[in-house]
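Problem 3 from the worked examples.
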Amino acid sequence: MTKPKTGEMLHLRGNALDKGEPVALPLTQSSMFHLPGDPDGHASYGRVDNPTWVHLEHVLSHLENAPCLSFPSGMGAISAALFATVKAGSRLLIPSDGYYVTRLLADRFLSNLGVSIVERPTTAFAEGGFDGIDVVFLESPSNPGLDMLDLPAIARPVREAGGITIADNTTMTPLGQRPLDLGVDVVVSSDTKAMGGHSDLLMGHVASRDAQIMERVEDWRRVSGAIPGPHEAWLLHRGLETLDVRFDRMCSSAQVLAELLASHPAVKHIRYPGLPGDPSHALAAAQTARFGFLLTITLESEAKAEQFINACPLLRPATSFGGVHSSAERRARWGDAVDPAFIRLSVGCEPVEELWPAIEASLNAL
């Protein structure tokens, strides 16, 4: 996998500056622009243009090696990608064990507009083939189960059958996995997570090398008003400047913790693609640059899971993931079809020599 040139990314703005211009990206907080005469080629209105977005999307495009558009949340990006590719009569295939809000969008809204929804579990996603499927929505690793899909092996037959593939790459980021390079047509991401990295913004993006799809995505953003705020765009740009170092620390620590947790007597079951015995290990080794910062553990009971999370001083009991603070939650509380004692653990940037003793002590106290 070709890693994006993150050093070059840090200087995308600097190498285009004129003398005396600020090195840090300015925040353009304006809904109106000075616009005498013919407006073509100039920023016109805050729902359509913003200079802060423009540079953020320049950086995101560098990371994805594809045209990119930003959105006010990950679900905003997913909605844009789906509304740009499905229509009445379309058949949409989605994972039955992926992020639950994607399923809610499909069930409560797309199905009412004449879109036929097909669900399959990640581990049997290719069973039944892809003939007659117009759009295939992929999630690999699955959230929260961490099962993997062979992206090229799915993208190829979907394209041959005339369909479009959309991959949610939130958990891996462009530094960990590159779905577009593996044949996928569209990538979506919740940049609220590791891309921003500081748990202080909601953002998302859509990337594709298909110009027609991106034109429809941009039309959707402009007409629906699903636009990011300039301050959030500015925060995400700042977060991206440290993505490389944060992602490296988080993935390295997750590998260490997974190996230690796998041998702890309080842990009944563990999933982490970096463990040689994990069902996702072979696919992850072939398809990703890193094994990620998410792992899951299952303890003896719901009560012990709650006790473990709430008693550990270096774990935030919170939903979402990918921040500099390690966090954990029982996913069953949101309705995921998992064991009540199943915990999704997002490894942050704390030194692992501090993080493991805190986790171990909390487990030992159960």
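Problem 4, a separate protein:
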Amino acid sequence: MSFAIHLFILVVFLNRYVFGLWLRLVRGRHLERRDDTYEPTITVVVPLYNEGPSIYDTILSLVTLDYPPGKLDVTVVDDCSTDDSYAHACRAAAAYPDRVRVLRNPTNMGKRRGITRAVRASTAEIIVSVDSDVIVYPTALRELVAWFTEPDIAAVGGRVHISNPNENWLSKLQTIKYYFGQEHLKNLERACESVMCLSGCLTAYRRTVLVEVEAVLEHRNLAGVEIKYGEDRFLTHQIVKRGYRTRQTMAAMCFTKAPTTLRGYFNQQLRWKRSNIVDYVVGITDAWRLHPLVCLNYLSMLLLLLVYPIVIATHIAHHQFFALTTLHLEVVALFGLVYYVAPSVRALPPWLRVNPLAFLPMAVLMPVAYLLLTPLGFWTLDSSSWETRGHGGPAAPPPPVVQPK
């Protein structure tokens, strides 16, 4: 059993870190094709729920992005916020009446249906989804649309940076985690142009494709229970399932505030865990449609989700948790070293970088999260909460000195 588990871990590691990097190097020139002259009409859609005054600054940052004003508008969809978010959004719309529209759902319908409503109201060629607590880098829209070089490229995602990287030990840890999640773990999917989860923080879609999958999004459920979370992962999967290509560019950047308390962090991880469970379990029947390596990665992630908590529990039962933690610490230390020497990290301004030692607590947080949140995720699949992080949103950060490609 031990040999089988170690072999499985080796396969997961090779597939995620080695094969993906190799494919990207082999297909580098093909993946770099872009069209900087493409300027489609864009509607930026912002689902809103309880963000308070910060939504005003978010909207103003969007209408002043580096893009032709006549081709850019913003639609905010308030999902019956219980605070004053709607009033602040309306205040921003009053400042830009020709470019900002604020809609309010009649009832709390969830983020997914809010986005769908905004898509119906738009006539733009491209829909850009932006979370309500996100600050978008000025050139991000141009970087996103430049990668729509062929009709079957349906979605392009951007790079998410932490806007408060050095606030405390937890935000530092997540800064490194975000780095690996975007620059390494998606290498394989990026090389195959089948990125399976494009973040709701910043992703551009062809509106015609969103209209095509609207019915599936509207009736999303699991065993008759409506699912309102993980809309970005589910939407991306539905797009890839229909034969479209999905891309991600590191040059289209946005900034989001990381949770700085354990409660906020675990709430976020629980939401993501539910999304992973639903996506992997429901999507397993369509995995064969993917590129063989992407399919292998997809199935191995499902197996890891199910097996890893059992491995942790077994080690605890045999009084071997310290040995397991030591192994995790060695691996996490290696990852911290990779982060420290990575050229793409060194190219960032100092305020966006953190000390690599900040990643060490992940040696404990990761097994604890898998052990507790995986079964809890299964138990709470019917949750309909937005599970916002309870912050007022980030202040606009100073612009990075260098945009990593």
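Solution to problem 4. Strands lie at 42-48, 72-78, 100-104, 126-130, 135-136, 153-162, 202-206, 221-222, 225-226, 245-256. The CA atoms of residues 214 and 243 lie 16 Å apart.
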